[in-house]
Response regulatory domain-containing protein (Candidatus Thiomargarita nelsonii), 303 residues
Amino acid sequence: MTKKASVLFVDDEKRVLRSLKALFKPHYNIHITTDGHEALEIVKNNTVHVIVSDQRMPVMTGVELLRQIKQVSPTTMRLLLTGYADLPAIVDSVNDGEIFRYISKPWDNDDIIKIVKKAAQIGQEQAVNTPAPIATSEKQDIELLVIDDDIETYNAVQEIIGQEYTVKWAATLNSAFDILTQGKVMVIISEIHVADEDITLSLKLMKQHHPNIISIVLTHFNDAQSLIALINQGQIFRFLPKPIRKPLLTNSLNAAIQRYRVVQQQPELLIRHSVEEPKPNKMTSGIMTFLNQIKPSQKIQIH
């Protein structure tokens, strides 16, 4: 593509906007504003491939802005840029804004350039080639996997959706991998710590190598930095706190199943789920051995 992508930066600090404009102007068509309402008008009246918004702004927060942007321009890639590790805002950025990346202030120039470049490439491709997602209620043989050593999570999911779909339960990571290698699971509902084991790396690698599997994290865990890593490296679809709130879980399960259906119809949307590669550790090779056993029919490649 020869045309420059359009990027919109929203921040209530003009000095931040000046810095971002100077950094990106040589490569993109840049819009800047300090006002969330003006940002919405810019997106409504222009093709905007990427929006990068601060969180803590007067009148309208970044999460609220990105939530509205998702409605008016679903192909626009949404990034949150903030200097505050505000856990409720980060959770909302996943659940309401469905953001592509979370960027911390102060940013590293090389990192933010790389992130915006990737988002712009996806945004341009989607704006040109991707039709609006097709809503469907068509019955499909969808399996859900609960990964949690607390059976109450399985019971809650089974009660909500078990009459329509097959719900399986794994109380350990190894038993989860055994189920996954059968190649039928489309939605995962997972704790972060299972049987005293941190499984965040597994969730990240799962999304990297099997992007069509939709992940919901349901946990007592409340560390902001770990959640940021799950956004950037795991593209989790929803983050839900424990204790379980049935209405919130019900809405999230239905939304996850609908997202899976849409991705099956339009696999080109999977590029929006591309993730940063997590840093490898001594467990990586063992996890990959299991992930590579997932049947090819369950894989959709991102090009």
In short: The first helix runs from residue 14 to 24. Confidence is low (pLDDT under 50) at residues 296-303. The CA atoms of residues 146 and 153 lie 7 Å apart. Residues 6-129 form a domain with the Rossmann fold fold (CATH 3.40.50.2300).
